[in-house]
């Protein structure tokens, strides 16, 4: 297995830089005071397609040859990768064939359609996703771009942390949410290179804690269709992301559903950040482990902002 290095992340950044947004880093004095720490939020909720996923999807597409793109691209995704791949494909003038679980949030389904993705729905299990995707690929000849078990996707995701650290300087802790592990892997690669003394911490819902259990046990556990509002974090790590996470990530903290919702409220109230549940999990984990972070400079990737406004009563 070939594992990306920071050199690969830098190459990805040069490749996608003309097309992605250099998203802002927001600091909130109210949240700093509340948590007795300096918190830096890298706002990928403001990225094109509403999430960090555009970085990895675009890097993957731009790394393919014209021959590999002739029949378009395909993937399975609960939403953010689907929208990102659809937008990236549209920039290259090719079709994106998207397999989505029929439980995917309506806001994410609409985003995929807005960017021109062709959706095929399936049951909300990994087996159903993979079987449906195999059928779609066989029928269309599209090139499969995995949401996270893909070298070029991981490299693209690492560019968000590269930008964060180049802007704010050394940090004591770098955090990102963990689902399939693409963002966490890219985050860890960039953080280890640019800020080697930082603690690299993942954050997961308690109801979907397979990565946390895997890291503590030293062997990979898979999730089994967990119930959590953080829909982007219901997937399991892949061989590639597990290899990176177990060698680069120091710890993974978990957070309850109530803490996730509380973190969304705090981000909106004190930093004007509209964070979807998955991207609020790092702050939710901080809520439940305050003493660990006191007095530290902490960077967090706000991974996306695609959520149903009704969740917060908006």
Task: Provide a short characterization of the protein structure.
This protein has 314 residues and is of the alpha/beta class. The chain contains 14 helices and ten strands.
What does this structure look like?
The protein is an alpha/beta fold and 314 residues long. The chain is 47% helix and 15% strand. Helix 1 crosses helix 3 and helix 3 crosses helix 8. The chain contains 14 helices and 10 strands. The radius of gyration is 18 Å and the shape is globular. The longest helix is centred in the middle third of the chain and has 18 residues. Strand 7, helix 9 and strand 8 form a beta-alpha-beta unit. It comes from Geofilum rubicundum JCM 15548.
Q: What's the main sheet like?
A: 6 strands, mixed
Q: Which structural class should the secondary elements be placed in?
A: alpha/beta
State the strand order across the main sheet.
Answer: 1-2-10-7-8-9
CATH topology name of the largest domain, in short, is Rossmann fold
Mean pLDDT: 95
The proportion of strand residues reads: 15-25%
Q: State the share of residues found in helices, binned by percent.
A: 40-55%
Span from first to last CA? 46 Å
The low-confidence parts are none
Number of strands: 10
Work out the radius of gyration: 18 Å
Overall shape:
globular
Instruction: Give me the CATH architecture of the largest domain, please.
Output: 3-Layer(aba) Sandwich
The H-and-E topology, N to C, reads as HEHEHHEHEHEHEHEHEHHEHHHE
Q: What is the C-level CATH assignment of the largest domain?
A: Alpha Beta
Number of domains: 2
Question: Helix segment count?
Answer: 14
